[in-house]
Write a structure and sequence with these properties.
Radius of gyration: 14 Å
Helix content: 40-55%
Number of strands: 0
Shape: globular
Largest sheet: none
Order of helices and strands: HHH
Number of helices: 3
Strand content: under 5%
Amino acid sequence: MNARLNAFFSSDIGHFDVPDMTDVVPEAYELVEHGLLTDDDFRDFMFTNAVRFWGEVNPDFFKGTVVEKQAAAVLAQRK
């Protein structure tokens, strides 16, 4: 059906059942390696969808953070 879900990455990296927190994002990237997501899909999953989720409701949400400029660029695309 080619439906797109605006899912985004979320993980309790510090949870007791994550033995090595440096493995969490590489494990998520396996979705690309296995052909389940494209690089663009992965970018949306890891960043763009989350920016839109919080930033469209509160445009100042990312102000003062290390991703402020990148988030503003994503939000500007929607206008």
